[in-house]
């Protein structure tokens, strides 16, 4: 089969012939219909994940964890699935049931009992880039790793379930209530989904911030109340003017460390900052956090994928979201 394989060189992927995976008992063979590029994929290709255990760029990796695929072969012992079913990732990583986190029902934090103190062992064995990604003609997955797609959900929309779930988790972490004001920094795929979920949650004013005019235009199409380009306005005074005291919450959907300091200056006293983008090590001023009595929360894989799928299936998102993610 054909697959997009890393060469070990920065930002280089090459189409190669690789063995088609075999379906074993209890597994499904699927043909990829659509695969979205995650920002973390790009970071991996830039080798900016090298500070994380297993994050260094290497040759032979097949990326792609945001996908829609069609079942073409069903392994022995699999029930409730048949050829022709379309699916996306369920996000299920497996839990040990024994660690500190599982015993407190914090299942999204489980890395296995032997890794209770670990940080980055969620990276698959062999590094972030492994050979089972969906940037290939075929993939093998277990039924527990998949969600069936309703017939009316397109393959492109199916590939956006995983990134949208990040936006759902961000808004849940923010605790947005009807009438709140929110700033979403970054109007890429994650930011646009976050912005739309904030509107669904009842935010009365959502301000999208980005450096690219085309992204801001899409944000307006998807319901942003205000869009701001820091290259064109003095961002912090303008946000404070629009929200009177500063927004109730700032959600960071980019991977720029300086943006964290911008969010601190921008948010109201007693406000909340939610970090979605995996910000690299950066210099901060915690004293300002104390003076403003700020709250912080970081988001990684906390929301079931089915929540995002239900939002898409019930028409909560306009076509602009799918269009914004096409190359």
UniProtKB/TrEMBL annotation:
Keywords: Oxidoreductase. Residues 24-151 form the Alcohol dehydrogenase-like N-terminal domain. The keyword Lipid metabolism does not apply. InterPro entries: ADH-like_C, ADH-like_N, GroES-like_sf, NAD(P)-bd_dom_sf, Zn_alcohol_dh. GO terms for molecular function: oxidoreductase activity. Residues 190-303 form the Alcohol dehydrogenase-like C-terminal domain. SUPFAM superfamilies: GroES-like, NAD(P)-binding Rossmann-fold domains. Pfam families: ADH_N (PF08240), ADH_zinc_N (PF00107). PANTHER family: L-THREONINE 3-DEHYDROGENASE. This is Enoyl reductase (ER) domain-containing protein. It comes from Candidatus Entotheonella gemina.
């Amino acid at each position: 089969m054909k697959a997009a394989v890393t060469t070990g060189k920065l930002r280089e992927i090459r189409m190669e012939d690789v063995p088609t995976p075999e379906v074993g008992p209890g597994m499904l063979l699927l043909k990829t219909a659509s695969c979205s590029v995650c920002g973390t994929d790009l970071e991996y290709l830039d080798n900016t994940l090298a500070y994380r255990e297993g994050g260094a760029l290497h040759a032979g990796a097949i990326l792609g964890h945001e996908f829609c695929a069609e079942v073409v072969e069903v392994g022995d012992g699999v029930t409730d699935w048949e050829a022709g079913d379309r699916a996306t990732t369920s996000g299920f990583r497996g839990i040990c049931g024994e660690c500190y986190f599982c015993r407190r029902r914090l299942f999204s934090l489980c890395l296995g009992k032997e890794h209770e103190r670990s940080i980055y062992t969620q990276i698959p064995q062999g590094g972030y880039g492994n050979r089972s990604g969906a940037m290939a003609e075929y993939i093998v997955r277990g039924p527990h790793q998949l969600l069936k797609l309703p017939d009316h959900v397109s393959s492109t929309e199916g590939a956006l379930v995983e990134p949208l779930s990040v936006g759902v988790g961000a808004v849940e972490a923010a605790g947005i209530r009807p009438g709140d004001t929110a700033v979403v920094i970054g109007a890429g795929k994650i930011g646009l989904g976050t912005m739309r979920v904030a509107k669904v949650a009842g935010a009365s004013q959502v301000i999208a911030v980005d450096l690219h005019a085309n992204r801001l235009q899409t944000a307006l199409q998807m319901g942003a109340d205000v869009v701001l380009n820091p290259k064109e306005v003095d961002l912090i005074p303008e946000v404070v003017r629009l929200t009177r005291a500063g927004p109730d919450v700032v959600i960071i959907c980019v991977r720029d460390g300086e943006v964290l300091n911008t969010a601190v200056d921008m948010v109201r006293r007693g406000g909340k900052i939610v970090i979605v983008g995996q910000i690299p090590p950066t210099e901060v001023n915690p004293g300002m956090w104390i003076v403003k009595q700020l709250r912080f929360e970081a988001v990684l894989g906390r929301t079931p994928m089915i929540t995002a799928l239900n939002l898409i299936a019930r028409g909560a998102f306009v076509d602009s979201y799918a269009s914004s993610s096409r190359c």
